[in-house]
Amino acid sequence: MGLLVVALVGCEVKKEGDSGSSGTGGAVRKAVAISGAVIIEQDGVKVTYRRKCEWCGHVDGSTHTMDIPRTGTRSTMSFTCRKCKKKSKRIMEGM
Ligand SMILES: [Zn+2]
Q: In angstroms, what is the span from residue 43 Cα to ligand 1's centroid?
């Protein structure tokens, strides 16, 4: 009987440790394209996207990768559309 109790307690301690470690992984962020971008994929740290023209809607063929901005902050970058040659702004916000 005594051994059984010890084993059960051991299991409970292990479970608590597992949930605690996964809970502290708060570094996972989410990127949201405010304008000028189409998100292809993101893994909580980096985001891959294509530039999208705000004027003609042209989506650039090449992909770009960047760090996801901190929660509540925006990353802005200007680019020139290859199709209509107008300038657009790529705005990405971290959540
Ligand atoms: Zn364009």
A: 29
Encoded tokens for 84? 């209509």
* Dist. CA 55 → ligand 1 center (Å): 5
> Reading across the β-sheet that carries 59-67, which strands appear in turn?
37-42, 46-52, 59-67
Looking at residue 51, its amino acid is: R
Domain carrying residue 65: 29-94
Is residue 15 in a domain? no
The answer to the question of residue 4 being in a domain is no
Ion ligand 1: residues, Cβ under 5 Å: 53, 55-56, 58, 81, 83-84
Q: Over the stretch 3-31, which tens digit does the pLDDT of each residue have? A: 555 555 554 545 444 444 444 456 799 99
Least confident range from 9-13, 23-27, 61-65, 82-86: namely 9-13
| Eight-state DSSP code of residue 1 | -
- pTM here is 0.71
